[in-house]
Structure formats: C-alpha cells, structure tokens
Amino acid sequence: MKKTILAAMLAAGLAACSAMPEISPIPGSITYGGQPKTKLTKAPVGSVVHHQLNDQYGKRAEETYIIEPDRSLRLVRRHQIIDPN
User: Fold this and answer.
1) Is 2 helix (H, G, I), strand (E, B) or coil?
2) I need a labelling partner for 82 at 20 to 30 A (CA). Which of 11, 30, 62, 63 fits?
C-alpha cells in the first residue's frame, strides 16, 4: 500500500515538473513573428542554436533554441549577458 501511494505521488510530482513555462519571442528573436522561412536541414534534430540580441529592456541577451523533429525552432531559454566592464 505504501509503495502504491509513493508511486502515485512520484508520478504526480514528475508530471508537474515537466510543464515548463513557455518563453515568448521578443522583437529580435529568431522566431518573433513565426518560424523562419528557411528550414535548418543540415543540423541534427535536438541541436542547440544560440542567438544574441538586445532584449525588451535594451540589454544584451542570449537566447537558446532547440531544433525540433519538424525542423522548427523551440525557444527554451533567454538570459542577459553581463558585461564585466
């Protein structure tokens, strides 16, 4: 009985963890206004693509995309680039 309850709690916890909040593209993002017209045909599915831009606050930022099986890009991360000077 305890194992069943533990398994149910673990499954519920994992289901909640897999739901990541979606990051919306901003002006300057590769996917702002939709997917790019050209498909990335040479890069393997699951490859990571980095892109630098100025974010909505005018600060330098880097976005990370992953190439999906349909060759579209999924935005997974955006972070500000800190200038050490």
Assistant:
1) helix
2) 30
Give the full edge-to-edge strand order of the sheet including 48-54.
48-54, 60-67, 73-80
Specify whether the CB–CB gap between 31 and 75 falls below 8 A: yes
In whole angstroms, give the CA distance from residue 58 to residue 68.
Answer: 29
Per DSSP, which regions of the chain are E strands?
48-54, 60-67, 73-80
d(CA 80, CA 19): 23
Q: How far apart are CA 48 and CA 5, in angstroms?
A: 38
Cα gap 7→28, rounded to integer Å: 44
From the CB of residue 13, how many other CB atoms can be counted at a distance below 10 Å?
10
Is 49 strand, coil or helix?
Answer: strand
